[in-house]
Each structure stands twice: as structure tokens, then as C-alpha cells.
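ugh ok fine here u go
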Amino acid sequence: MRLILTTLLLIVSLLSWGQRTNQAYWTYIDKYKDWAIEQMRDYHIPASITLAQGLLESNAGRSTLATKANNHFGIKVGSSWTGPYIIQSDDRPNDRFRKYKSARESYIDHSKFLQQKRYQGLFRLSITDYKGWARGLKAAGYATSPTYADALIRVIEMYNLNQFDRGKSRSSVKNVTATAYVNDFFQKHSVYQGNKNQYIIVEVGDDMATISKATGLSLRKLYKYNDLPRDYAPTAGDIIYLKKKRSCASREFRKNPIHIVEVNQSLFDIAQLYGIRLESLCKLNKWDEPHAVQVGEIIRIR
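structure:
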């Protein structure tokens, strides 16, 4: 049975490496995390909250507001705005939204926007209390969706955004000898923390040999840690773990230990997203072997 399961894991891995539903999210996080940390230092807003709002409000930078108006936070004109705007239907037809010269200007204006009186209670919360901030934003009327706070919390926990609330965007891998080559690699790659593990996000031009050389991990370990076949070729946006994955998702998910399958998402994608061994994910769901998951299917992750 174990040999059959191992073979099936390799087949699933080979078949599942297509377009990632989370690739755009990782790209967005890597691009804007330093700005979110900067805003946290300047305005005391958790970086995780800023990133999560940016991801949701701009659809990871792909929304019409983001592409045409550099508006990443869905902020409308309001009485104090004297700058340019664009018109787009939202709660009402022909709502007016602020237009910015750059995405950076949008990030700064978002921080200033939250200085309004109705949000002042949030600043009494700890900078690490992302759940309190998410619920407070919803209670103060930032968004009309009844699930807005839950959506923010879920995104923060899925992508481990709360690690940036410590004020660091880059870290080094333990036990790696510093060389010019390694330093160059980690100038381009962030090392993320999640589920008691470390991982990087594949950039264009990366291959497994490059990652192996930079991290000091053998190719055998990289393939094993990530449930990968030996002929795997990485794609930008893929997650590569630097230690053995765990048997279930992290404790943040203990109250809501499920994942609902998204479009174009495979079982392997879900295992990588939460840092779970694929074999363990099967055991959590009482499956003898992996299978092709369907959109909307509920997967237990803890």
C-alpha cells in the first residue's frame, strides 16, 4: 500500500503543477510587504492587516481600481478628497473612487485614511492583534460585507502575513554559509515562516539546482520535503519548503480546520499552502490515496 501511495503521490504532483490560484497572491505579498511594514512603523497599523486588505480589495493588484487608478484599498472619494477619481459601480451605481499616481501613494493614503476618528479605537489594540483589527475594521464600517473580518483573518493565516507584524521582511536560512552567491539569492528571495517551517517563493529563472545551491540543501531533501518528483521544474509562484512539512496545519486553524477548494486548485496545492505532507493530508481526510478534488469540496487540514 505504501509503494502504491508513493507512486500516486508522484503522479498527482506531476499532474497538479499548473497555474496556481495563489501565485498572484504570493507575487503581491513579495512586492508590497516592505511598504506594509513601512506603514506599520509610521502609522502603527499591523502590516498583516494592510497586506490582507490590499490583497482582498485589489484582487492581488488585478482589479480595475488597482490597474487603472492605483487604488489598492477601495477607498472612495469622500468629502476631504480633492484629487482625481474614477467612476465605478459598487454599493451604488457610479461611485467615485480615489485615483493615485502610484501604488505607493495608495498605501500611504490608506494609512492616513485610518487615522479618522471612527477607527481610533483600533490603535489601542496590540500591533500583533490582527484578529481584533480585522473585526474592528468591519465594526467601524470599512466594508459592507458581513464576512469582511473573517476574510481578512483567513487571508492573514493562510499566507502567514502576521510574520510581518514583527517588522521584518527578510530572514536568512539557518546553517547556510554566507557567500556572495547566497547573499545575492536572498536579496531576491524572502524566506517566509509558516507552520514551524521556512519556505521561499519561486522566482522566474529559478531551478531546483539553484535553490539547492543557495540553501545548502541537497536536491534529494528538497524533493522529499516538498513531495516532488525528481523531474519537477519549478514555476514562478510555487512554494518550496526548506524543512520537512508537518502532519497538519498550524494552530491558527484549530477553530476552523478546513479548506474549501478553489478554482484550478489541486490537493497538492493545498498541501503546499498549509505546509502539510501530502500523505498526512490524505490521512486527515481518511483517504487511502490522493484524488482529484472538486471546486467547493471541503478538505480537512487539521
